[in-house]
Amino acid sequence: MSPDSSPLALLARPIAISISGRDAELRPSVCHAYGCRLIDGGRRIRLFVLRDEARQLLADIAANGEVATVYSDVRSFRSLQIKGRDAITDTFNEADAAAHIEHHRITAEELVALGYAAPLANGYFSVPRNPDLIAIEFTPKDIFQQTPGPGAGAKINETDKAIK
Fold first, then answer.
1. What confidence category does residue 7 fall into, taking pLDDT thresholds of 50, 70 and 90?
2. Residue 30 carries which DSSP code?
3. pLDDT band at 14 (very low <50, low <70, confident <90, very high)
4. Which of 105, 116, 137, 139 stands 20 to 30 A from 47 (CA)?
5. pTM for the complete prediction?
6. Would you give the end-to-end CA distance of the chain in angstroms?
7. DSSP string of 122-138?
8. Which of 24-46 are b and which e, b meaning 16 or more Cβ less than 10 Å from the residue's Cβ?
9. Strand partners, 63
């Protein structure tokens, strides 16, 4: 499978990202992620969240390491859900900052190309000045088709190939 045909190729496109976890009573926690990057050729995924927005999610990750992430192309609505069971939090670093800035740029540009006003497009993916971002990193275990329509929710059978 070529890198461009891998399901994970979507993560390099203009996308909206959500990340969720759960506590011991199965109550969900969810927040927006402000970018992501692949580590070690896609064997790990790092996402960037605002610490204040993600307090419950961060507590849930510390307790059980389980995450479900959704990546939706802002033009086509093609969407994937990727789950992991070994999520950890880590310091937001320079490589994360570069990926965050690039994610903001390409996604805002795509929204403007779709007809959204530039202030709205830039505002949707913006963070406060001097944001307290933290990274969440995990190994993708299961990948599901989440694009609305027939096949939504189906597990992608090529998961092992897609993440290697």
1. confident
2. E
3. very high
4. 116
5. 0.90
6. 10
7. HHHT---SS--EEEEEE
8. eeeeebbbbbbbbbbeeebebbb
9. none
